[in-house]
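Title: Prediction job returns without error message
Component: structure pipeline
Severity: low
Priority: P3
Assignee: unassigned

Description:
Job completed but the reporter wants confirmation the result is attached to the right record. Sequence as submitted:
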Amino acid sequence: MQIELIAPASEDSAYLPRLGLGILAALTPKEDEVIYTDDLVRPFDIERDVKDVDLVGISVDSKTARRSYEIASAYRRRGVKVVLGGIHPTAMPDEAARFADAVVLSEAEDLWPTLLADFKRGALAPRYSGPLPSLGQKPSARRELFRSKKYIPFQVVQTMRGCPYPCEFCSVSTANGTTMRFRPVDEVLAELRGLGKLIMFADDNVMIHRKYSGELFERMGELDKHWIGQCSLAAVKRIDNVRLMAESGCKALFIGFESIDDTTLMHTGKRQNRPSEYREVLEMLHEHGISTWGSFVFGFDTDDPEVFERTAEFGIEMRLTMALYAMLTPYPGTRLYKRLKAEKRLTDEQWWLGGDHDQGSPYFVPARMSREQLREGWQRAWQRFYEPSAIFKRWTVRRKSSWIQTLGYLPLNVMQNRLVKHKILGGAQRFRSRADLSPLTAAFDAIRLTAERDLDEARAPHAGSKHLRVIGD
């Protein structure tokens, strides 16, 4: 049979192949044909791109939920069975079930073969769930599906899943568990040997387990790879960890600082971050030729209107190669979403059904500022960090600087400067779905209007026990 695996896109989607769909393709029997469709590489036209396949599988996160439901509904109108899976259906199974013939809860590797067998005998179940799978003895992703030249020139590899840190706003531990699971080092190395020189580890924390990562990085030295990845500050406080990563080929790390204030980090559960240690850690990384990309979040209950300028100036002073600033987002399933809902501070309980998530955010009432102040401050931070004078002030070439810092620094920062002008300040979407062509647009808007009306009633005096209607109720 023919199976189409679809990666929907949002305005924030990055040009990275969906590794999970590549793994599902590798788990599909060889007699079945797999079609891979990336909505970002080639935007899916609802009117013209629906295919006469036997089964469609769509990977859904919260920011692609509306787009995913539109595509799913177009196929179901054609009579094609649709399976939805991913982090959003796992958090909102009843909602996803409205738009699918089957919903996969949790990670799909161990469930996919059973689902395909059920489909072939005409007994597709409405839901599939099970324990989180072991990562050992699983096939590598079918990389021939990811041929587009639009993807970043790094081969994406995953070595682990899960996170033990209880950050209130993060969905990783909720979706992937609090217990770490690792791929056997031999299997990772075997995959790396068959790939090119540039590697991107898709792990949430490449040095979360010293023994595992130590063995992997020690043995990677002989492969002569250049790699980038994401790492927590707790891991790079030790000089031996930094030295090991540098010797294995690390050229850049994406680090979730989240905040420069101790009170905020304690409030959010990010206790492993200590602002007093930021400077020392960054200098140690830079001295070992590792560029740093910082991630910061605005909108925590302890944030005040001055946090934006202080955070942007910190990044400039620390000479970060790049920085990402986000407004706090209440993702469904997280402790943050549940708390804000209980406190009646959510302004749109189904924000993922909107057409432009950036323009509608923030989706909650901040504690120490207005929503307008949060949005405007977020814009100022982006503008300040990527203005030309700040770009040149941050550009420091050291004795051990990597090619990312020497050759890549200016192109990357010029690109970000354009993003600030056109997207952050101008409101342009990097990706525009053909949502207005979908017959579901009016239905989505009606659902959201109902939610907004119910929110107003809930906030009114003596609102009683009125609750928002959620899709699937």
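Comment from assignee: result matches the submitted record. Residues 102 and 126 are 4 Å apart (CA to CA).
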